[in-house]
Amino acid sequence: MALKVELKPFERIIIGQSVVTNSDSRARFLIDGKAPILREKDILTAETANTPVKRLYLCIQMMYLEDDIPKYQDLYMDFVKDLIEAVPRFRPSIETASKLILSGSLYNSLKEIQKLIDQEAELLAQ
């Protein structure tokens, strides 16, 4: 089943190893295949990954985009260990994300960690 995507003017999307930038008008298209896909709103960079949960998200993002879990496995485990020590209540979500990674569902793992980014923001605002 193809993924239906609608991009706002000048919105970017990563498809595989390529960044596609939309022109000055809305565009709608279908993507069929197995390439990793991330919309601009779901992409973190090294500069924007400025909190522990965001660094964990970035690590999973790189696993997903490069289709290379082993390359980032040690880094991932270090982030997980530090994060669980700092905020033990994040453990269930991190365990869910880890299981998703092991099953090959990296995109769904990103979505699970996205929830923690929101919770982390609330903690940091206190």
Distance between the termini: 43 Å
Radius of gyration: 16 Å
Widest sheet: strand ordering: 3-2-5
Helix content: 40-55%
Structural class, judged by helices and strands? alpha+beta
Strand residues, percent: 15-25%
Figure out the total of helices.
Answer: 4
**Average predicted local confidence, pLDDT:** 94
- Strand-and-helix sequence, N→C? EEEEEHHHH
Q: Could you describe the largest sheet, including whether it forms a barrel?
A: 3 strands, antiparallel
Would you identify the regions where 5 or more consecutive residues have pLDDT less than 50?
A: none
Inertia-based shape? globular
Number of strand elements? 5
Number of self-contained structural domains: 2
Account of the protein in words:
The protein has 126 residues and is of the alpha+beta class. The protein folds into 2 domains: 3-40, no CATH class; 52-125, no CATH class. It is 52% helix and 17% strand. It contains 4 helices and 5 strands. It has helices spanning 52-66, 69-86, 91-102, 106-125, and strands spanning 3-7, 12-15, 18-21, 27-31, 37-39. It has a 3-stranded antiparallel β-sheet, with no helix packed on it. Helix 3 (91-102) packs antiparallel against helix 4. The radius of gyration is 16 Å and the shape is globular. The protein starts with a strand and ends with a helix.
Descriptive key words:
17% strand, 126 residues, three-stranded antiparallel beta sheet, single chain, alpha+beta, two-stranded antiparallel ribbon
